[in-house]
Amino acid sequence: MSLLTPTIRPSVVARLNPVAKLAVALIVSCALLLSIDWVSAGVALLLEVGLLLWCGLSARQFWLRTAPVWIAAPMASITTVLYGEDSGALLWQFGFISVTEGSAQLGLAIGLRVLAIGLPGIVLLATTDPTDLADGLAQVVRLPARFVLGGLAGLRLVGMFIEDWHSLTLARRARGVGDGGGLRGAARRFFGPAFSLLVISVRRGSKLATAMEARGFGSDEPRTWARESRFRVADAVLVSIGFAITGIAIGVAVRAETWSFILA
Question: What is the pTM of this model?
Fold first, then answer.
């Protein structure tokens, strides 16, 4: 079962160690945050396409899981174009809103960066089983067992939020609560179930923490793991591909003289 769906077909990337996939996502993200230029983001996104094709997601699964990124990218880009810092020649103006060459390039860079950072993170984690990720973090990265097990337990509960929200919505509708129209009715339909879901989550988390503590999960004694997690040659190759993508993207941007270190 993956982090986002239980029906991901096996693929080359899905069989790799989750630590390697997490490392690639972090490498690409950190490198692209060093500069805001459209060349490095565009090159990285283009190179990532080849890697994403090996993840085993169908077209429908890919578009459903990455839909928030595709929505956020143009929104961030348009906002930056309209309200970003003006520089260069004026392209369009309406009242206090102006679009210049600098703001257009900045908007393009922001949009491409959202895609280049968000897509690999979502797609790579979509092929990751939570238990495999916990095994890798504990055995490969050597994180504390209490932290790993607590995170795994919490992650397992995320999938229940949607079911709880659906049940709360149906229950309120059956009682005729929040059926009013307009902005007030929409607010009641959202904030009512949201508060109920918060209460349910706190109670469920407290019960789960007590049960895990009673079963010895909070002990400081060294733990054994049912499944062995190894960092193999294929995992090292995937991490090397991540470094290669960032290196090529930065190299092309420097060559094109668009690279600008954000802290400089």
Answer: 0.75
Q: 223-228: long-range contacts (C-beta < 8 A, 24 or more apart)?
A: 223/138, 223/145, 225/135, 225/138, 225/139, 227/131, 227/132, 227/135, 228/135, 228/139
pLDDT tens column, 222-260: 778 888 888 999 999 999 999 999 999 999 999 988 888
For residue 120, give the amino acid letter: P
Amino acid occupying residue 42:
G
CB contact set of 191 (below 8 Å; sequence gap of 6+): none
Backbone angles phi, psi at 74, to 5 degrees: -65, -35
> What are the angstrom distances between the C-alpha of 104 and each of 97, 101, 111, 249?
13, 5, 11, 21
* Alpha-carbon gap, residue 256 to 207, rounded angstroms: 57
Chain center to CA of 205: 23
Token pair, residue 131, equals 């238990």
Residues near 83 by Cβ (< 8 Å), separated by ≥ 6? Answer: 97
* H or E element that contains 183: helix 182-214
Token code pair at residue 78: 């348009």
